[in-house]
Amino acid sequence: MHSIRGVSTFPLHSKISRWKVNDEGTSAIEFALLAPLFILFLLGMVAYGIYFGASNSIQQIAADAARTALAGLNQTERQALVASFVTNNASGYPFVDATKLTYQANDSTADGNQFVVSIQYDARNLPIWNLFPRLIMPTTTISRRSTIRIGGI
After folding, report:
1. pTM
2. HEC secondary structure over the chain
3. How far, in Å, are 56, 59, 88, 128, 130 from residue 124 at the CA level?
4. What is the pLDDT of residues 51-103, one digit of tens each?
5. Angle formed at CA 106 by CA 51 and CA 149, multiple of 5 degrees
6. For residue 34, what are the CA distances in angstroms to 24, 45, 125, 134?
7. Contact, 74 vs 36, CB < 8 A?
8. Pairing of strands 101-107, 114-122
9. Which of 7, 38, 91, 115 suits 72 as a labelling partner, its CA being 20 to 30 A distant?
10. How far is it, in rounded angstroms, from Cα 46 to Cα 135?
């Protein structure tokens, strides 16, 4: 460093050198820049996790109701068994409000040896819709179906 009578001729250069070495506060700046993005990803994972959990529960209800229907001897008995199963058991599945379920249970029109249980769930009451309003979300109605073979192999 050059100096004339003890005064630096490059005062700006020495300040920049000290600034390059000083790294106090960099963690706070990095956190301020990355935290919103991290929080957005975290909320997205939670939101979709809740939705996928509800979707899986609806599929499981349809499958369990179809298996229950196997005990019926005709379509009317199978429909009664499905109705009883959904009424008594749907509230025990995670993320499912039994009052928001609608279902149909009928013999298959394509194959008379199959019985089809279709369930629709109004998912508007899931907490994900208010979690982060700008997040792109799937449809508010979850529809799942399960088909089971009637009798024999």
Report:
1. 0.75
2. CCEECCEECCHHHHHHHHHHHCCCCHHHHHHHHHHHHHHHHHHHHHHHHHHHHHHHHHHHHHHHHHHHHCCCCCHHHHHHHHHHHHHHHHHHCCCCCHHHEEEEEEECCCCCCEEEEEEEEEHHHCHHHHCCCCCCCCCCEEEEEEEEECCCC
3. 16, 17, 22, 9, 10
4. 999 999 999 999 999 999 988 889 999 999 999 999 999 999 988 999 999 99
5. 90
6. 18, 17, 31, 19
7. no
8. antiparallel
9. 91
10. 11
Joined tokens for residue 46:
């939670």
Q: Residue 81 is encoded by which pair of tokens?
A: 């068994």
